[in-house]
Specification:
Elements (H helix, E strand, L loop, with lengths): L3 H16 L2 H7 L23 H12 L2 E6 L2 E6 L2 H10 L11 H6 L13 H14 L2 H6 L1 H20 L6 H18 L8 H18 L12 H5 L2 H24 L11 H11 L8 H32 L1 H15 L14 H13 L9 E2 L4 E3 L2 E3 L4 E4 L1 H4 L15 H4 L25 H5 L3
Helix pairs in contact: 8-9, 9-14, 10-12, 14-16
This protein binds protoporphyrin IX containing FE (HEM).
Protoporphyrin IX containing FE binds next to helix 14 and helix 19.
Amino acid sequence: MMFFPLFVALLIIIILRFLLPKAKRNRKSILPPGPLGLPFIGNLHQFDSLTPHIYFWKLSKKYGKIFSLKHGSTTMIVVSSANLAKEVTQIQDLTFCSRPSILGQQKLSYNGQDIGMSPYNDYWRELQKICVVHLFSPKKVQYFSPIRKDEVSRMIKKISQQATTSQITDLSSTVISLTTTIICRIAFGVRYDEETHERRKLDELLKVTEEMLACFFVSDYFPLLGWMDKFSGKINKLEKNFKNLDEFYEGLIEQHLNPNRPKSMEGDIIDVLLQLMKEKSTSIDLTIDNIKGIIMNMLVGGVNTSAATVIWAMTALIAKPNVMKKVQAEIRAFVGKESIVNEEDIQNLPYFKAVIKETFRLYPTTTLLLPRETMQNSILEGYEIKPKTIIYVNVWAIARDPEIWENLEEFILERFLNSNIDFKGQHFELLSFGAGRRGCPAIALGVWLL
Ligand code: HEM
């Protein structure tokens, strides 16, 4: 009975929409085309949250390289071509470079006090500067090189031992463990041994954090229905996750402030940030919450992206034994008796470099980049885009654009052997790290000097 007035109102809206002369409807339509949604919820009921990039790719086949959707009152635009990606991330970067405020992300980033989820403002600009100069500069990336070498050597030893005792190696968990350990050592100077209680606790904490960051909260689209998130238990889970993370960061910061801290903490990311805070050498007052937000970015932005890239590359090579043989031969010829490739030598391994590029093309880890939010009115491909519109760049679809790539579903290294296309944000057909102001600030760390 309670829903009857709502039902009548919706019915009237639908009837009016269809009774309106077509010309008048068109005149109102300044947005790019897109699938017809329902009143109030828009296209939410059609959304595929597990593989949104594939869903968007299918829509782009029907509605074009730029299309729009509505989620509640939020307008979303999806672009699926290299030219439009360039428009969004380079030509009109300043218009499209903010981030939407999404409940889970806001909470876990201390209200956007991190780098990734912060809106575009003075605060974000200063953090970006800190990243470029202090955290992920070529010198700093080089400084962490012994950590990467040590961890890769340990992994090789473990795999060799497993091979000699005929044990099966679980590639995914081995690689995820590697990237988690490296990021923990770089960010806060601690090595959590596998199979320890502390390590299992951290892995679980990260798992729930990823889940909360990707979680759908009704209140993001229907603020008046926020009670539904409480009712479903999501808010409780988010609060608990936040509290656990906060305690974890507090413990680490306390250890760093202790004069008897282990030597491994000297020069790590928390150490650098605490130093900057103490010196007051930045144009904003860096706070402990800022440091916590940045640590969260490193854990969330660094672990799974790097691991997934390695896992995809290995999967592609296993499926193509001939290509695998060629890459192995190139590496063995170069390495000689050494058991590990020095990072600076990767420049001399063109076939191996092509593996990385082709993996980034076919299996980008951040398939839609991070969502951008428009800061002002703008025109994109002739359409009028209002402020606070959310923009997605479908990198996964661009990698499947037949106007750019031949045999696009095939893992073919030759396409990169005699080409200058790279993934550093200047070639919009290969945007694995994004581009422009909001492009990945840790690209050098992400690819270890490639
Ligand atoms: C293979 C590894 C990695 C890949 C493929 C990757 C990819 C990306 C992508 C696609 C974006 C969004 C760019 C955009 O919206 O235009 C991004 C942003 C970001 N990444 Fe990475 N990333 C990697 C490694 C890392 C690492 C190791 C860290 C930190 C230790 C990191 C920290 C960040 C941060 C903080 C942002 C947000 C930048 C901003 O909004 O201003 N990433 N990354």
